[in-house]
Amino acid sequence: MKSTTRYFVVCVLLFTPFLVDACPMCQGGATEEYAAAYKTTTALLVLIPLITGAVIFRWVHRSFK
Predict the structure, then answer these.
(1) pLDDT in tens, 48-58
(2) CA distances (Å), 49 to each of 41, 43, 55, in order?
(3) What is the domain partition of the chain in residue ranges?
């Protein structure tokens, strides 16, 4: 890849997130429905890795008994 093309790709990847706002909570469009969905999704995304880790730990622990 040429250095100018590489530089352009890096600049696009670095500055693209500043152009979009994906969170409705940050834009002032927060209603009770959005707030509940946001909190539920956050809780789900926090709990999934913890539950997965616990299941894997228990599975490995039982296999060595």
Answers:
(1) 999 999 999 99
(2) 13, 11, 10
(3) 23-65
